[in-house]
Amino acid sequence: MQQIQFFRLACLTITALPVFAQAPAANKTPQRSPFLISRPVPDQASIDRGRAIYVPTCGFCHGSNATGAEGPDLVRSFVALRDEGGDEIGPVIKAGRPGMPAFPQLTNEQIHDIAAFLRNRQQDAIDRNAYQIKNVNTGNITKGKTYFAAQCAACHSAEKDLKGIGGKYEDAVLLGKIVYPTGRGVTPAARRTVTVTANGKVSSGRLEYLDDFEVALKDSTGEYHGFQRGPAVKVEVKDPLSGHEKLMKAFSDTDLHDVLAYLVTLK
Ligand code: HEC
Ligand code: HEC
Fold first, then answer.
1. Tens of pLDDT along 219-237?
2. Residue ranges around ligand 2 (CB below 6 Å)
């Protein structure tokens, strides 16, 4: 639940950031072909919302332009080309695929927006790649370094875990990671752990499952332990990403862009 709320918050936060922009405003707006591959032409607000969800959530596997990375190109995918308003991609997103996690927390509205974004990308490909994500790296490196020392250095180091981070992700993806660092990059260090005290016996390990009735963990030997929850069972969950959750409420757009500018220098 916490994860889901976190996710929603992340989406809201990202949506609220005016970091993504349209194709560079050249002196003349490129003439668009008629929308060849979609009858209902997606509206711009939906495309923008979809992009804000897509880039940090899907972009690191499918490329922030959707032309593919570890995951397939979604501009040329038949599933995505056939899609109308999320009807084809929705089931894939909700259920996942081998090598792709499920995103059951995404609402139909959000999927509809992602579909609008992808449709726009396909159209842009037809219009010969008019699309670009505007440079998001607009912050001040020195201020970002100071901010990092104050807000991030308790958990991160520019010489250790974040060494080379600037070369690891595209800037827009990195921005998403600062706000919400999950997805493929999530290492065991980022997983939630839990301590369960039941009948005086204490067990702890990686959190495998949690709802109002049950909790399950895997201990350090890899053994699975499930418990019924109740008044006599104490459950303590530790989330290593809670630091990001707190920061997300604290940092301003300027802080975020400054710290991004600094991280980009860590090559
Ligand atoms: C961890 C990497 C990863 C992430 C994150 C991810 N995907 Fe995927 N996705 C894949 C892989 C790998 C496949 C191919 C799976 C297969 O071969 O069936 C795939 C397949 C798909 C397909 C089917 C393409 C086709 O032509 O069959 C769609 C649509 C899709 N992803 C959309 C998304 C969307 C939208 C998101 C974000 C909400 C997302 N994916 C997030 C890795 C990822
Ligand atoms: C309370 C601890 C904590 C704080 C504070 C914190 N982070 Fe993190 N951060 C983490 C954890 C845990 C991860 C997940 C690490 C992993 O997957 O290995 C992470 C992941 C990341 C990642 C993704 C790394 C990758 O390789 O994908 C970035 C980027 C990042 N944090 C940036 C920041 C920035 C910038 C700040 C300060 C504004 C910050 N973090 C503050 C704990 C923290």
1. 999 999 999 999 999 999 8
2. 151-152, 154-156, 165, 177-178, 181, 185-187, 189-190, 240-241, 243-244, 247, 259
For residue 97, report the distance from its CA to the centre of ligand 1, in Å: 7
**Ligand nearest to the CA of residue 94, numbered in listed order:** 1
State the Cα angle at 39 between 36 and 43, rounded to 5°: 100
Cα 31 from Cα 50, distance rounded (Å):
23
Label residue 247 by pLDDT band (50, 70, 90).
confident
In terms of residues, how long is the chain? 267
Token pair of 163 as six digits: 């060494």
Q: Judge whether 67 lies within some domain.
A: yes
Residue 254 has pLDDT above 80, yes or no: yes
75 inside domain: yes
> What is the Å distance from ligand 1's center to 92 Cα?
7
The total number of structural domains that make up the chain: 3
Q: What is the DSSP string of 30-52?
A: PPPPP-TT-SSPPPHHHHHHHHH
